[in-house]
Design brief:
Blueprint: E1 10-12, E2 26-28, H1 32-44, E3 50-53, H2 58-72, H3 74-77, E4 94-98, H4 113-121, E5 127-129, E6 144-147, H5 150-159, H6 168-175
Antiparallel strand pairs: 1-2, 3-4, 4-6, 5-6
Length: about 180
């Protein structure tokens, strides 16, 4: 995506659903109802799933990637952070989740009840785990979930596949009219 791309319709995620109450997180308008349902249903199951990251602009991703590169070196940063213009967050359809215990460190999220619940249920709301263990793109990110629509998410879950196992042609069959 170019440096000017941002979804036309972004909505603020209410702070009751976010980890950092002083920060404004945004998500695509048409993703919000699905995200809200997911988080409310998790809460009904006595879990606390909170958004710790959502839409990021090209510029925000550039700053974040630059900081990671300075801190960890380019080789290591490239294992867990996309370059600006290549981040799923810029689509406005991706969130990073946490819980009050893990907070914004992400450390231990893979062992949390919230993560286990997401694995068993997120597809029902149209969300898939982007970077599973053993993927060839980035390190395992149990907190990083992308909205792909209910039909695609359910089919991926049923078939035991991951989003990036599909070809672009297969993906297009599902997402070409996703927000029409």
């Amino acid at each position: 995506m170019n440096d000017n791309y941002a979804p036309a319709d972004l909505t603020n995620i209410p702070t009751q659903y976010t980890f950092n109450k002083s920060k404004i997180y945004k998500i695509h308008d048409e993703v919000w109802p699905h995200l809200k349902d997911l988080m409310n249903d998790a809460q009904d199951d006595n879990l606390s799933i909170l958004v710790v990251s959502a839409f990021r602009s090209f510029g925000e991703q550039a700053v974040l990637k630059g900081a990671y590169t300075v801190s960890y070196g380019a080789g290591t940063a490239n294992q867990f952070s996309a370059d600006q213009g290549y981040s799923e967050h810029q689509l406005g359809t991706t969130v990073d989740f946490t819980n009050p215990t893990v907070a914004d460190s992400f450390s231990g999220f893979a062992q949390s009840k919230e993560y286990k619940w997401l694995l068993a249920n997120a597809y029902k709301y149209g969300f898939v785990l982007s970077y599973h263990q053993g993927n060839s793109y980035y390190q395992f990110e149990p907190w990083h979930w992308r909205f792909v629509g209910r039909d695609l998410a359910k089919d991926l879950h049923k078939d035991g596949k991951n989003f990036y196992d599909l070809t672009q042609r297969e993906i297009d069959e599902y997402v070409v009219n996703l927000f029409d």
